[in-house]
């Protein structure tokens, strides 16, 4: 089933992206329920400790593996090392598909399927998981593996859309576009 198209309002950001020259792009899908990265706080003996929410570590590994696989496939198809990881600024587009509750009546599920979702996890937390995944794990202090990017500072633009889907169809579709300003 195809999702209905989104028609964002004309904004300065929209006009800016129309003037940019996108040099390379990668598209890949992470199967499974999207997990947002947010930090939980615990206070012990008067000290606050922050730690990532449950399930984030496993989800980050899924994103890293999917990004690595797509990067390697693009290198094989080009027969060259390719531009990834890139030092250019990038725009990241994420479309997250979240499962509807099984307890919902069939009529409600049919009405919501493919429509915009306002449920948890929050869109910004899903973006954090995706960005951390395409940068890759730390290999040393302030040094990352660089799956698609060398640092998350390179992200110049972001967009996310959350949609409802049937159970078993959960996924995140990610597009990373490298940009060179005219």
Characterization of this structure:
Helix content is 28%, strand content 32%. The protein is an alpha+beta fold and 182 residues long. The chain has a four-stranded mixed sheet with strand order 1-8-4-7. Strands 2-3 form a two-stranded antiparallel sheet. Strands 5-6 form a two-stranded antiparallel sheet. Helix 2 packs across helix 4. It is globular. The protein starts with 11 loop residues before the first helix and ends with a strand.
Features of the shown structure:
4-stranded mixed β-sheet, 32% strand, two-stranded antiparallel ribbon, 60s Ribosomal Protein L30, Chain: A, alpha+beta, single chain, 182 residues
Helix-strand category = alpha+beta
- Average pLDDT score: 83
Q: Outline the biggest β-sheet.
A: 4 strands, mixed
Shape: globular
Q: Strand share of the residues?
A: 25-35%
Count of separate DSSP helical elements: 4
* SSE run: HEEEHEHHEEEE
Please state the CA-atom Rg, rounded to the nearest Å: 18 Å
Say what the CATH topology is. 60s Ribosomal Protein L30, Chain: A
Low-pLDDT regions: none
Give me the CATH architecture, please. 2-Layer Sandwich
The helical percent reads 25-40%
Distance between the termini: 37 Å
Structure described in brief:
The chain is of the alpha+beta class and 182 residues long. Helix content is 28%, strand content 32%.
Topology:
Elements: H1 12-19, E1 21-31, E2 39-44, E3 47-52, H2 56-78, E4 90-99, H3 106-112, H4 123-135, E5 138-140, E6 143-144, E7 155-165, E8 171-180
Parallel strand pairs: 4-7
Antiparallel strand pairs: 1-8, 2-3, 4-8, 5-6
């Amino acid at each position: 089933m195809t999702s209905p198209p989104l028609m964002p309002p004309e904004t300065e950001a929209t006009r800016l992206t129309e003037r940019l020259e996108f040099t390379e792009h990668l598209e890949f899908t992470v199967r499974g329920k999207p997990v947002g990265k947010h930090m939980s706080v615990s206070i012990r003996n008067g000290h606050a400790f922050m730690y990532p929410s449950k399930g984030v570590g496993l989800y980050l590994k899924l994103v890293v593996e999917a990004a690595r696989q797509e990067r390697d496939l693009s290198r094989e198809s080009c027969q060259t090392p390719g531009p990834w990881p890139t030092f250019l600024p990038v725009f990241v587009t994420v479309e997250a598909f979240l499962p509807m509750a099984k307890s919902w009546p069939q009529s409600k599920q049919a009405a919501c399927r493919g429509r915009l979702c306002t449920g948890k996890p929050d869109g910004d937390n899903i973006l954090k998981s995706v960005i951390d995944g395409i940068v890759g794990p730390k290999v040393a202090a302030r040094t990352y593996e660089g799956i698609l990017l060398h640092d998350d500072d390179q992200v110049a633009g972001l967009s996310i859309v959350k949609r409802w889907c049937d159970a078993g169809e959960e996924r995140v579709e990610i597009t990373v576009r490298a940009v060179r300003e005219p």
